[in-house]
Amino acid sequence: MSTLDHNEPEGEKILGSHGPKPEEVDASAGYEQSDVGVTGIVVFLTSLLIFVAVCGLLTYGMGKLINARMNKEDGPNSKWTTAVNIRDLGNLPNNPEMQHKVAELTQQFPTPRVQTDDGNQDVADLHQREDLLLDNYSWVDPMQGAQGKVRIPIERAMELIAQRGLPVAPATATEAPLMAGDSQPVVQVPLTSGFARTGYEQDQATARAEEKGKGTRE
User: Fold this and answer.
1) At residue 190, does pLDDT exceed 70?
2) C or N terminus of the chain, fewer CB within 10 Å?
3) What is the distance between the alpha carbons of residues 53 and 40, in angstroms, rounded to a whole number?
4) Is residue 151, in this structure, part of any structural domain at all?
5) Are 205 and 197 in contact (CB under 8 A)?
6) What is the pLDDT of residue 193?
7) Phi first, then psi: what are they for 139, rounded to 5°?
């Protein structure tokens, strides 16, 4: 059975026995006086100041120890280790001779250099050097004179191989027997020569052929 008295006023129902009655509240100060804990705020601020001071002292001491260790290992600062304010130096005058030397060094810088494109020209130059070796006669070791070796064009080398054939290695005396489902390997003729021009080289060849055709017609 409920112990609430339904005949009590609304204010008394809400407050009950857990708070002061409306007639007991002192409203003369103009604000609530019972919920502010000044002591807790003072303790928190004091603890925070002490924590900050202790952390500052610890970091200052660690910095001193690190600097002392570095000075012990590297020695004290000298005129060679003192920082210089570059603003005091001002703007350095231009030196055309030095700029010319820098330009020469840039042109003579050894490979690999920074690519100015996606490398198509380098590949084309490489293939041109390979074509010079593959399509012309040249000395392998010119210092040997007449006793040296000569590099012959690849077309001529293919003709000689077709006439003379390739040396055949002698068959081994003991060959391992084939397993079930295996077959003797057979050398197949490649479908291509293994070399193809890049798209960039093909475009260059097409442009040269067009220029040659225009010159012929003129």
Assistant:
1) no
2) N
3) 20
4) yes
5) yes
6) 58
7) -80, 135
Counted domains in the chain: 2
* Token pair 């919920």 in the structure block, residue: 35
CA–CA separation, 124 vs 208, rounded Å? 14
Strands (E), 56-163: 138-139, 150-151
CA distance 23 to 26: 8
Residue 132 belongs to some domain of the structure: yes
Contact 32, 38 (CB under 8 A): no
How far is 174 from 170, CA to CA, in rounded Å? 12
Spatial separation of the C-alpha atoms in residues 32 and 22, rounded to whole Å: 14
Residue 139 lies in a domain: yes
pLDDT tens digits for range 40-58? 889 999 999 999 999 999 9
* Sequence-separated (6 or more) residues with CB below 8 Å from residue 11: 22
**How would residue 192 be classed by pLDDT, with cut points 50, 70 and 90?**
low
CA distance 49 to 42: 11
pLDDT exceeds 80 at position 124: yes
Q: Quick check: 129 and 117 in contact, CB under 8 A?
A: no
Report yes or no on 7 lying in a domain.
no
Which amino acid type is present at position 52? V
pTM of the model: 0.34
Q: Which structural domain range is residue 43 located in? A: 39-74
To the nearest 10 degrees (0 to 180), the angle between helices 120-135 and 154-164 is 50
